[in-house]
Every structure is written in C-alpha cells, then in structure tokens.
Fold this protein.
Amino acid sequence: MVELSGVSRWYGNVVAVNDVSMALGPGVTGLLGPNGAGKTTVLHMMAGLLAPSRGMVTVTGQPAWRNPRIYADLGLVSEREAAHGFLSGEEYVLSAARLHRLPDPKAAARRALSLVEMTSAADRRIETYSKGMRQRVRVAAALVHEPQILLLDEPFNGMDPRQRLHMMDLLHHMGAAGRMVLFSSHILEEVSQVSGTVQVMVAGRLAASGEFRTIRRLMTNRPHVFAVRSSDDRALAVALMHEASVTGIDLDQSAGLTVRAGDYGTFARRLPKVAAETGIRVRQLQPTDESLESVFSYLVAS
C-alpha cells in the first residue's frame, strides 16, 4: 500500500533521512527509533506533507507529494497537536467528515468517536480535555472516513494505561481486518505489544526491518552491561568470574563493578544466589546499556 524507494530528505546540510527503502502492506507495523531518528520525516513524506529530496514515495501506487487523491485512502495523526480548543470533540471530528465529503458526516463522526471511546465527552470543548483525550479525538478524526492506511506519530502520548490498552486493541483489530497501520514510537514495549513487524531507524537510516521476534531475539543476545555495588566488590568479582553468563568484569575502587553478561535473565537470576552463597550484600544493580540508543547502535554494528 505504501512504498519508499531510495528515499532521502535533507534540510540544507542536515540529512534527516538517508536512502530509506521499505514496502508496507496490510497489518500493523511499528516504526521504531530514538528521538531524532527520522521517523516523523518518513511519516510526513508518506502523507504527502514533505517532498523527498531524492527517491520516490508512493501510496496505493500513486506519488504521495502534491497528490490530494491519496487522502481518500489515508488518515494521519501527527505528533504535533493541531486541534482547535474552542471546538467540541464532535465538532472537530464532524469537520473532518465534511472535508472528506462523506454522505452522512454526522453518522460517520459518531461512529469514529465511539471507536475511540469518546462518545460521552463528545459535546465538551477540546480545551477541557486531558492530553490523552485530545489524542483520542484526533485519532477519531483520522478514522472518520474509514481509510485503508493509517499513519500515527507517537499515538500513545498522554494516554493512561487503560486508554493505551484500548488503543492498542483498536490498532490490532484494524490490522487484522486488512488495513495498513504504521505507528512510530521510541518505546520498545509499545511496539512489541501491538506490532508483529518493525522498521527500525537510527540516525536517518533503516537499521533493521522485519518480523519483531527475530529482531527481539537479536537484541536479547547482545552483551549486557551492569553496574554493581556491594559490600565486598573484589570478592564478588572473583565469585562472578566463575559464572557462565558473565563474559567480563572491571573493578573500580570508587565506581564498583562493571559486569558484562551474555544473557540478561541468567545473570539477573544468578547474582542474588552468588551473593547469598558468599555472604556479600548487593547494594546496587543497574543496567547501563538498556537505552534504545544503545540497542540500535548494536543493531547497526551487527
């Protein structure tokens, strides 16, 4: 439904997206990457809001740039909020229905508001909404014409846990019904709960692409680094050197231990047992390489 072929986008001397190619069909796909990776730029090019500096972006076989026809099949929820606070939720979604020239805009607006569980607050002004409510009413406006393609930029921002679960369930059902849903996130767990496939972006490049479990397995097998402080760092280091999951240890008198482990779970289970066996009290255990930036750096290096 959406295809990028050798797409780059730059602003002067700054390259935001560099030679990205991907083809997206029905189902839910997560666009994953740290802040500044180029996710928003990719989504805006897909939605026809930005022209690629090089390459081609097509939506249902048509060029996306300067082509209003694609909006009959496409809905977009941008990261930046653009809802007028003086409108009620129903008025806002109704305006979107009228822009799409739907035969029964009021019925379409009510249906979209029901999908995102905003019917009870539909007559309230948007300026009285919480951030999560504003986000849901914006999703309703993007869904009002029942598009086959839905692009969402950080859609779960501001939602409470119950709202997140409902939105995740909605996106899952849309993908199962044959729609193409692409949502961006910098939070790994959001993607893992909704999407089977991911596109991982790092510094404007596509670093990994494919079925989520395969990439997750690669992430799990990467070396893990922990900062450990204890009542006797030297004795603990000696004891940990005999553990199969430990691949290296550095001892610093002021900073404690830096432990490299090949398997996160095995080390986390063995450390308390080793400490108990040696009579050592563990005062601190902190993963130091669990940021998305470090994960993506590993993917790029691999």
User: Anything to note?
Assistant: The first helix runs from residue 39 to 46. The radius of gyration is 24 Å. The mean pLDDT is 88. The chain has ten helices and 14 strands.
